[in-house]
Design brief:
Blueprint: E1 2-13, E2 16-27, E3 31-35, H1 42-49, E4 57-62, E5 65-67, H2 71-75, E6 78-81, H3 93-103, H4 108-121, H5 137-148, E7 155-159, H6 167-182, E8 186-190, H7 194-200, E9 203-208, E10 211-216, H8 218-225, E11 229-235, H9 238-245, E12 251-255, E13 258-263, H10 267-272, E14 279-285, H11 288-296
Parallel strand pairs: 3-8, 3-9, 6-7, 7-8
Antiparallel strand pairs: 1-2, 1-4, 4-5, 9-10, 11-13, 11-14, 12-13
Helix pairs in contact: 3-4, 8-11
């Protein structure tokens, strides 16, 4: 069964098309990632799927409901974690959850019973009466996640759920999100963290300029688009070394003062670094970030 189906989706602003004939299918119970540089159309796509903005063309079906015509009915079974935390600073932790429950018609007594479990899930047990101003950034993000679960949703949309968090907070949220998929919930997330996408997503789509340019499992995308081994080299004299590397590696790229060499076997390249004390290097396996940069380029997007 498909939790979300998108066909031929288009959206333009001021004559510029930001979503260009998008097709997506998200299966129930999977974590699906939308990756792309700034301006690729990810956030607009989420808003379209939630019925928050009207498409110019295309069809959207969310949990069997046509969107935007019956978006309200679909959203009753959906949770949303927005890009920026929009918690009410005048309310306590518990009060933020109570007020949000009213939007879904949840009776106060029932909501009161749900709060301890939600706070435990978010790692906020014992913080029920705390004011929002007293919470760290990681706590606020986890509370926003707990709030998205108030109505026990079947699908949860998350726009960059761990941006701005320290590694400890990020890992805790990753563990909680994995728990949600183990419980059968469907996650649709956008992220700029390639490691996050590799760890969490069963499948993902890479968007650029409003279109999907690659789709599949993280492992399959890495195998399809990137040589298995990567050597990163930087330091004094890297430009001279790079000319030697081009004769030994099938693909060599430079970004700033770092040389990236890709190949099935980079042993010959490693030999050339012997005795090169001014050059630092990192030998690693190919990653999703390598795929992302190859497909979307290394230039900055503002």
């Amino acid at each position: 069964m498909s939790a979300l189906s998108v066909r031929g989706l288009r959206k333009s602003y001021d004559g510029a098309e930001v979503v260009s004939g998008l097709d997506l299918a998200v299966a129930a119970g999977e974590c699906f990632g939308l990756l792309g540089p700034n301006g690729a159309g990810k956030t607009t796509t989420l808003k379209l799927c939630l019925g928050l903005i009207e498409p110019d063309a295309g069809e959207i079906e969310l949990l069997g409901e046509p969107v935007p015509r019956r978006a309200r009915e679909a959203r009753a079974r959906v949770g949303v974690v927005p890009q920026l935390d929009n918690l009410d600073p005048d309310f306590s932790v518990a009060e933020n959850l109570m007020v949000y429950g009213r939007y879904f018609g949840i009776a106060p007594r029932e909501m009161q019973a749900r709060i301890p479990g939600l706070l435990e899930f978010a790692g906020l047990a014992g913080r029920s009466d705390a004011k929002i101003s007293a919470l760290s950034g990681g706590m606020k993000r986890r509370l926003t996640l707990a709030r998205a679960l108030v109505n026990n949703p079947q699908v949860i949309f998350m726009d960059e759920p761990t941006t701005g968090l320290d590694p400890q907070a990020r890992h805790l949220i990753w563990e909680r999100l994995r728990r949600l998929t183990q419980e059968g919930k469907t996650l649709v997330l956008t992220t700029h963290f390639m490691e996050e996408a590799e760890r969490l997503c069963h499948r993902l789509a890479i968007m650029d300029r409003g279109r999907v340019i690659a789709e599949g499992t993280p492992r399959a995308l890495i195998a399809e688009h990137i040589e298995p081994q990567v050597l990163e080299v930087h330091g004094n004299g890297y430009e001279v070394w790079m000319q030697r590397a081009k004769a030994l590696a099938p693909r060599v790229e430079r970004a700033g003062d770092t040389v990236f060499c890709y190949g099935d076997d980079v042993t010959p390249l490693l030999r050339t670094l012997s005795g090169q004390s001014e050059l630092a290097y990192l030998h690693r396996a190919a990653s999703l970030e390598d795929v992302f940069l190859k497909l979307t380029g290394r230039d900055l997007r503002d």
